[in-house]
Amino acid sequence: MTSRGSLPFDPIQRAADLWEERVGPARTMATVTSVMRVQQILLSQVDGALRPHGLTFARYEALVLLDFARRGSLPMRVMGERLQLHPTSVTNIVDRLQGDGLVRRLPHPTDRRATLVELTVEGRARLEKATDAVTAIDFGLSGLDAGEQEQLTTLLRAVRRAAGDFD
């Protein structure tokens, strides 16, 4: 999402007012639309911070996932499950990361059908610089203090749990 400057009005409030007039109660529509709009804003800001490092948020997230892996590598199937991505998307992400020398594919030691992915030394170095860039902008999340961030995380966790994201 490219920034075109501030609007002279709150577009979600305007939509909520019109929804109330034409459809009915707008609380849920306004909440969901707010979450979606904030997601676009955050993704734009994070991608902007990652662009100088040759990464998108999806590729950055894959590198972080691999860095957090206990064994230092993960099967591509597990990456897809954890990142909530279709296998084709995981393949595309890994292809790009491998093409940039940030990860390597390895045969799984016990499952010939599976492929492991692990960070390279260059991948770890790029991840460190990219992490400095996104933390320098607080992942694009401005306007909330630490307590409000915790409260928002708690609220969104309840939505994720209700949707079956985790047990």
Automatic annotation (TrEMBL):
PROSITE patterns: HTH_MARR_2. Gene3D superfamilies: Winged helix-like DNA-binding domain superfamily/Winged helix DNA-binding domain. SUPFAM superfamilies: Winged helix' DNA-binding domain. Residues 28-161 form the HTH marR-type domain. InterPro entries: HTH_MarR-typ, MarR/SlyA-like, WH-like_DNA-bd_sf, WH_DNA-bd_sf. It comes from the Bacteria. PANTHER family: TRANSCRIPTIONAL REGULATOR, MARR FAMILY, TRANSCRIPTIONAL REPRESSOR MPRA. This is MarR family transcriptional regulator. The lineage of its organism: Bacteria, Bacillati, Actinomycetota, Actinomycetes, Pseudonocardiales.
